[in-house]
Design goal:
- By secondary structure, this protein is α+β, with helices and mostly antiparallel strands.
- It has 3 helices and 4 strands.
- It has a 4-stranded antiparallel β-sheet with strand order 2-3-1-4, with helices on one face.
């Protein structure tokens, strides 16, 4: 039987932060084993983490340093679309 190959996974999180929190976030995640890459989209408060780390340990580490973190969901995707203004509305004028 062949040993199973580990494939890096991407964990998407919603992290409440301001500009100053990104440095703290990156420092915290640098201490978690198995993380290969961290991408931060501060405008929509989204953090994408790629690697072999356990997703629950990642969230726990962020909460330990005082950052509110939760797993990214479809609901967050909809809210971020409205927040960035990338949704276009039809405007109608009457009269």
């Amino acid at each position: 039987m062949l040993p199973s190959l580990l494939v890096p996974q991407t964990i998407e999180l919603k992290v409440d932060m301001v500009a100053l929190h990104e440095k703290r976030l990156r420092k915290c995640l640098s201490k978690v084993k198995g993380i290969e890459r961290v991408e931060v989209e501060a405008s929509i408060e989204k953090v994408a983490i790629t690697g072999y780390a356990n997703r629950n340990k990642v969230v726990k580490a962020l909460r330990r340093v005082g950052l509110r973190a939760e797993f990214w969901s479809a609901h967050n995707e909809i809210l971020s679309t409205y927040a960035t203004g990338s949704v276009m509305f039809n405007t109608y004028s009457f009269f």
